[in-house]
Amino acid sequence: MTPLRSPRTLFLASGNPGKLREFQVLAAGHALELQLLPGFADIPEFDENASTFAENAAGKALYYSRPCREMVFADDSGLVVPALRGAPGVLSARYAGPGASNQQRIAKLLDELRNKTGAERAAYFVSVVAAAHEGRAVAIVSARVDGKILEAPLGTGGFGYDPVFFFPQLGKSFAELRPEEKNQFSHRGKAFRRLMEALE
């Protein structure tokens, strides 16, 4: 099979400019341009109700690629804590209820782990990135990064659960990492680089 060449433009199935900027940094050095999917807000929202990150990412990519002639990619990422039976998992963004803030989600997580110590605080981030073209799946890749949940937030960078996710390899929380460090080691960074390799 002939390898697929990187498309000139790759559209992110999102209306989030912050997420786009993060992916644009990761795409530096690759021969493609990343943009938010035009008209994203006007398309009925895809219902992310699957039980796995892969199904949600692939479902989004397929759904939003149908009305678009260019390639579309989507991601689904989250935090998994085995001691909490995999929670927050695919519900990471909705863990403390619809519209909850990052601080509220972190507070709920820390409360759930209040009496847990040592290996019980092990956790990992997962990211699955999928690309599709006109309703046809082109690539689905994944990556994870292991760490543990701190007892209190550390650092002011990042977003989501980053302040309580301790990364032993560098001895810091994800919120304490410099952007270039996070891009090198994060689940999303590793998954997106795998997507670029798959497309090239």
What does the model show?
- With 200 residues, the protein is α/β, with parallel strands linked by helices.
- The chain has one domain (9-199): Maf protein (Alpha-Beta Complex), CATH 3.90.950.
- The protein is 27% helix and 24% strand.
- The chain has five helices and seven strands, in the order E-H-E-H-E-H-E-E-E-E-H-H.
- It has helices at residues 17-26, 53-65, 102-112, 179-185, 187-199, and strands at residues 9-12, 33-36, 71-80, 122-133, 136-149, 165-167, 172-173.
- The chain has a seven-stranded mixed β-sheet with strand order 2-1-3-4-5-6-7.
- A hairpin with a 4-residue loop joins strand 6 (165-167) and strand 7 (172-173).
- The longest helix has 13 residues, at 53-65.
- It is globular, with a radius of gyration of 17 Å.
Q: What does the secondary structure layout of this molecule look like, with pairings?
A:
Layout: E1 9-12, H1 17-26, E2 33-36, H2 53-65, E3 71-80, H3 102-112, E4 122-133, E5 136-149, E6 165-167, E7 172-173, H4 179-185, H5 187-199
Parallel strand pairs: 1-2, 1-3
Antiparallel strand pairs: 3-4, 4-5, 5-6, 6-7
Helix pairs in contact: 4-5
Which key features would you list for this structure?
Maf protein; alpha/beta; globular; seven-stranded mixed sheet; 200 residues; single chain
Concise overview:
This protein is α/β, with parallel strands linked by helices. Helices cover 27% and strands 24% of the residues.
